[in-house]
Amino acid sequence: MESTQAVKQRFEIIGNDASLNRAIEKSIRVAPTDISVLVTGESGVGKESLPKIIHALSHRKHAKYIAVNCGAIPEGTIDSELFGHEKGAFTGANQARDGYFKEADGGTIFLDEVGELPLTTQVRLLRVLETGEFIKVGSSKVQKSNVRIVAATNVNMIEAIKENKFREDLYYRLNTVEIHLSPLRERRGDIHLLFRKFASDFALKYKMPTIRLSEKAIKALENCSWPGNIRQLKNVTEQISVLETEREVDEATLLHYLPKSSNLPSVISEEKKGKSDFSNEREILYKVLFDMKNDLNDLKKLTLELMEKENDETFKEDNINLIKKVYGETATEKEFSDESHEEQLEILQFPNQKQPKETEPKLEDPYDYAEDIEEEETLSLQDKEVELIKKSLDRHHGKRKPAADELGISERTLYRKIKQYDL
Ligand SMILES: Nc1ncnc2c1ncn2[C@@H]1O[C@H](COP(=O)(O)OP(=O)(O)OP(=O)(O)O)[C@@H](O)[C@H]1O
């Protein structure tokens, strides 16, 4: 049996914390068996390494290992991805396709974010786990597959069961052995070790001298609560490696990069006491901008159609709600004069948006100008969106569910945005 140390080296796992060592030892021990394993822990703690260890140290190591991110696959296609489909099973299914269960026959499938699986898929998964049988989408023929499942989740599965989002029988079937990875804030001794490893990797990658921290900066790094865990520490190390010209990083410099408020527990608790989580002015503004983006899209749609269907009464009647939403309750009673258009445009000018100087000649083609606005606006709004999401995640210590609730978007959408913006 390989030693924990050897496994850490082989899989480039950094850290000496007892909880990390225990998780690795457990993985080594269950690897030769076919026991189902559920890896639990917050987002970014390093859950992906454990299924790889389990596969590589098992008798399945010569067959395929497939990692599936259940949260990133749209609900409509997940059954087909996992179990395959027959030709003509749905619109666009021009060819029959094998799913991961067929492809990984004899090997291992890692189901990351298993808590995100739709209930209908959970039923199919339970069947394949219990009997090894599955049916392709659009088929009636039962097929067999011998696959080991390792699943991972960062949501509280007991809560998900209570809320009827996850089947209890499937949970117990997946969770024969649970391996838990602690959040980074509970393994503070590993923080600087990880930082040094990432700093040296990025120095190699970007061909720059390695950054180092002053004593005080090391303390600040270790005292940070790291809501995004190791993923966030890695991102911060990369940012400093690239952006700082001075390779000796002091505390003041480091603080610019640390997740705001996560190293100020008193601020967090004060914020939590407030009724609204968006309790400071800046954040309220961001929230308003976020909402304005949607209004702006509605406005664009309406304006475009108005331009095409000027004075068409049927159009106004059909769009009464949209018109009221965008222009206010009394809007339909007055004409859309030039003045009211200007008012709307004024509201849509964001502070960091380039304004045409008064002395600049007026652009001949109004559409060119409109395109400029749209592009820059999208950029600045995207920044705000990223910041808003980051703040909400910080506030909820990286927990996606309350952050998604706060932002008024689904957990699945938040998940995609985290991946899209690499947060
Ligand atoms: N102990 C470690 N040593 C070195 N790098 C690590 C360690 N743990 C995590 N990482 C790195 O941190 C990043 C995040 O890890 P990983 O993707 O495994 O997290 P996760 O727990 O699966 O997150 P999620 O639940 O969001 O998928 C990866 O780039 C990974 O390589």
UniProtKB/TrEMBL annotation:
Coiled coil: none annotated. The keyword Nucleotide-binding applies. Keywords: ATP-binding, DNA-binding, Nucleotide-binding, Transcription, Transcription regulation. Residues 13-242 form the Sigma-54 factor interaction domain. SMART domains: AAA. GO terms for biological process: regulation of DNA-templated transcription. It holds the Pfam family Sigma54_activat. One of its GO terms (molecular function) is ATP binding. It comes from the Bacteria. This is Transcriptional regulator.
